[in-house]
Amino acid sequence: MPPRSLANPEFYLNRSLSWLAFNRRVLEEAEDESNPLLERVKFLAITASNLDEFFEIRIAGLLQHLEEGQVEPGPDGLTPRDEQELVAEATHKFVREQYDCLNKKLLPELAEHRIRVHSLADLNEEQREVVDDYCRNELDALLTPVTVDPAHPFPRVLHKALCQALLLRRRRRSAATNANYMGVVTVPRSLPRLVRLPDSRGDSFIALADLVGLHAGRMYRGYEILSEGAFRITRNSNLYLQEEESRSVLESVRTELHNRRKGDAVRLEIESDASADIVQRLQTVFELEDWQVYRTQGPVNLSRLMHLYSAVNRPDLKFKPFQAREWSLPKGTSDIWAALRQRDVLLHHPFDSYNSVVSFIEAAAEDPAVLSIKQTLYRTNDNSPIVEALVQAAATKEVTVVVEVKARFDEASNIKWARELEDAGVQVFHGLVGLKTHCKLTLIVRRDSDGTMRRYAHLGTGNYNPTTAAFYTDLSLLTANPEMTFAVHNVFNFLTAYSEQPNYNPLLVAPVDLAERVANLIAREADHARAGKPARIIAKVNSLLDKNVVQELYRASQAGVQVDLVVRGICSLNPGIRGISDRIRVRSIVGRFLEHSRIYYFQNSGAEEIYLGSADWMPRNLYERVEVVFPLRDPLLRDRVRNEILAAYLADNAKSRELKRGGSYVRESAKIRSASFSAQDFLIEAAEGKRDISAIPVAPPRAPRRRVRPRAKVTHSR
């Protein structure tokens, strides 16, 4: 029988539908009554924020393909039109599920705990007086009512700005003025979307959009208000840079950020109470098809519920705080440099405090023996202690920073950091033309007390952002290994001078050799399996989309390699296909922390190798970004990753869902659980010293399912 072609569309799941399945898993956390109530509200807000990005990037790109007349199918066999139709159906269903979760589950349960989001009709006399006072003193001065008529064209509605639409009719009508008019009021962004109300028994709020509607009559005197409703427009937010023709990447990004606010509309969200006339007028103005209109059974923009989470001080309704483990200097060492000369340090955030990474950079900034600091910055936070340390260091040292100003949705912040660093005397670079700088690297050059000049490095899987490090899982390696740090030095030369080496051993660097070497590592496991040697692959990534990697994993499965994948989000690999992927198991873990670390384990006939890095298995990471994947050389660190971190994720049966053939995700049935085990909960308790690896349940590897051939029917003749 000839081998089956790995290009068969049956073997690939659709990217957009896979992403929507991920967001559905986040929504499940909002529905899960085992989570604290306000954390469930937060999960719902996250689903809305995620869906915003999906429309402004993925759907915007899909619409461009349709406008350009693209008809070529993707690996899954779907044309852009096929995908659009499936996505339209799935997103409308998802939005209904979001509002069902809000209206049928979260709001009633919040009310039981004396937390209420009121409608105007619910207000008591005291609360109405507070609302009137707030509108007079805070709101009214910021409102600009617009009536659309021949003298006043439809106002420019900003990207994701909340607005109030009104259908108006003049009270004094004549034959010439008998038409209905459209009114538009933009809800001020400077005010909180939920306004706190007095409530001696609990926490009460009202939506700012409701207050705008309440005072619409005062703004439109002389008009009768026939209908109204809050609405919001999502626009195309892709950046389209012509870097080769640009004077500088920084100026190009600045210009595109301005244009983003005016991109083509891709979605209209509007309250279900708004009349069909209002919806039709908005559709016409924004040139939207019916499927791009989303009628909401509640407040527009559920991501603003995050304000409720932060505004309500109810620790009993949130996850219990935990104390991250602090790394301390080993006995007999006087400083971090001496400690790193003895042994590499591996940190698993947020279970291990990110303070150690900040302290590493701050120590370099303050140490007179440190001569230079080089660092990449992809995303960081406001008032960043890392940026402050780099600014301080620039007064006495050579400081070089590669700032990625094209980091999606952080462009404006990164431009600000770039300017601030330049003003302090830092050499700032913006990476390479056509490539985003996504690697996470810091390189320190220090003249040690023995007179030797040595390099020290930090390599990570996550951004230099102490804020997100508290709720993203990531890994950090601190090392003084000469081979590793010299390779980091060469990567910085690549970033600042395009000085390309044939390889960056022991690092795997995209777009130079990462894709090829990943394929070789997978193929090597397949060779071991064919030779009857121990062979296994475990990979933990955010997304798996690259067709070449998927096909290599299929070949490994066919060769007999057991493949375990922990993929948080998009996964185009279709597991469980007999003879193709029946040795591949795919899990997704969605829980308290956002799983962000990337780990690659290869059993390699017993000489196991483990790599960490910034790259997912996606085309953009392998071919369109500068990424760094690095090996763990220390056996003790490899043991920790394999026996503690990976073992915990593979044993998770509380927050893990398994991807089934065809794209559905299924939680393990409670009936077959011997005991519930959450990897994130275990890692918290391990950091607090309450549990160790003996608490991780060990499940035997699953053999591929074999189809039992039916016995031939036997007939007896007389």
How are the secondary structure elements laid out?
Blueprint: H1 15-31, H2 37-67, H3 80-112, E1 115-118, H4 125-139, E2 146-148, E3 162-170, E4 180-186, E5 194-197, E6 203-207, H5 208-214, H6 216-219, E7 223-235, H7 249-260, E8 265-271, H8 276-286, E9 293-296, H9 306-311, H10 336-342, E10 345-349, H11 355-366, E11 370-377, H12 385-393, E12 398-403, H13 411-423, E13 427-429, E14 436-437, E15 440-447, E16 453-460, E17 472-479, H14 482-497, E18 508-510, H15 514-530, E19 536-541, H16 547-559, E20 562-567, E21 584-589, E22 594-595, E23 598-602, E24 609-613, H17 619-623, E25 625-631, H18 635-651, E26 656-659, E27 665-667, H19 679-687
Parallel strand pairs: 1-6, 8-9, 11-12, 12-13, 14-25, 17-22, 19-20, 20-21
Antiparallel strand pairs: 2-4, 3-4, 3-7, 5-6, 7-8, 10-17, 11-15, 15-16, 16-17, 18-25, 19-23, 21-26, 23-24, 24-25, 26-27
Helix pairs in contact: 1-2, 1-3, 2-3, 11-12, 15-16, 18-19
Q: What attributes characterize this protein structure?
A:
718 residues; alpha/beta; 10-stranded mixed β-sheet; 8-stranded mixed β-sheet; 19 helices; disordered C terminus
Question: Portion of residues in helices?
Answer: 25-40%
Q: Could you give the count of β-strands?
A: 27
Q: Which blocks of ≥5 consecutive residues have pLDDT under 50?
A: 240-247, 253-261, 703-718
Strand content is: 15-25%
Please give the largest β-sheet: 10 strands, mixed
Euclidean distance between termini CA atoms: 38 Å
Judged by helices, strands and strand pairing, the structural class is alpha/beta
Count the DSSP helices. Answer: 19
Tell me the radius of gyration.
28 Å
Mean pLDDT: 90
Note the overall shape.
globular
